[in-house]
Amino acid sequence: MKTIHVGLMMVLCSLSTFSCDPSKTIEGNGTTAALSNASELLSQYNQNLLEYQQGELLSGTVDFQNYDDSLLLIHIDSASSDGEEIVYQLQIDSQYELETTTWEDAELLFLHENVIVTNNLDGTDYWFKLSSASAPDSLDVSEIDNTFEGYGLIRVAIPRESSGVSWSDPTTYAVKCKCQRDDVSDDNCTSGGRNATSCSVSNASGSCTVSCGDKYLGYACCEVDDTN
Question: 147 is in which domain, residue-wise?
């Protein structure tokens, strides 16, 4: 099992097209981070897209956690998230173990197939992406150290007042999105299903959306879990 130590270490990384070496630590100098032009990146990405297709830029406290060797969780507590807790999930093939940690002052850019997070205190950048996704246009790509690749990228929004729901335990979510293997039948998909590469679902208990990698042999599935 590979382990990537994600702490408040002095690491300078920007984005590239190859995966990081999880055993590698690089000393940084706190220079400009990858999201120095985040507003420009978001504006270019959102051009000509419908509202539900657009990305988002959030600032706040970011928590990282590995869940059950199958998901990397990125949770942001942001004043601009309209009374919701936002959790991004990267479905993985047990390639990484993400050490639980918190960045108190961070910026996060979500572009459906990419999530880029910068620690404003030391310039550390992390890139969570679909393995089939390329770097966003106008992003300066060089000397990547911390890239996490997976086959499904999920965004979940949970009302802060939700009872019995914990962002760190996806089994408690009332709405669930995932990339499902073709050899596993799932008849509970509210949206998505066979041949779907993305889907979304929402109700009073929250919302979620998922994008599946082009090379993933499966389908997108979104459902409302009435048991929660």
Answer: 34-45+54-224
Helices (H) then strands (E): counts for the chain: 1, 13
Q: What is the Cβ-side half-sphere exposure of residue 119, based on CA atoms within 13 angstroms?
A: 23
Whether 21 maps to a domain, the answer reads no
DSSP 8-state class, residue 133: P
pTM: 0.81
The tokens describing 178, both together, are: 């995932």
pLDDT tens digits along 117-156: 989 898 888 999 999 898 877 777 665 568 899 999 999 9
Is the distance from CB of 18 to CB of 135 less than 8 angstroms?
A: no
Tokens for 101, please give them. Answer: 């940690």
Q: Is residue 182 part of a domain?
A: yes
Tens-place pLDDT, residues 24-56: 322 333 334 677 778 888 888 888 888 878 889
Rounded Cα distance, 21 and 9, in Å: 16
Name 51's Cβ contacts closer than 8 Å, sequence gap at least 6: none
